[in-house]
Amino acid sequence: MNTTSEATTGEVRLIAYLVPKPGKEEDLAAAIRDISADVLREPGCAAYIAHQSCERPGTIVMYEVWEDDAALDVHVASAPFQRLAGRFDELLGEPLKLERLQLLT
């Protein structure tokens, strides 16, 4: 998974959408809960907050804030994320969707 198109600096805010396969909603939620505490301890992680969509029950919407692209890249390579990613074929009904955010000032 390529999280950056080119090297950039500065805080990275993103939303990740994880849409479960039918019948895998609870398994996906449990998998996210299982890694959340470890991810929050990763260097450069300022926020890693899981939500469930009200419009699409079972869909997990993650709000993440990373110190910079390097911290996000370390997260993607980390054991907790790789453990989750290793289950994507089993759990996800759609590909993981990442949406970068820009803070309005």
TrEMBL record:
InterPro entries given in the database record: ABM_dom, AI-2_Isomerase_LsrG, Dimeric_a/b-barrel
The residues covered by the ABM domain are: 12-100
- Origin, by domain of life? Bacteria
Matching entries from Pfam families are given as: ABM
Name used for this protein in its record: ABM domain-containing protein
Say which species the protein is native to: Novosphingobium pituita
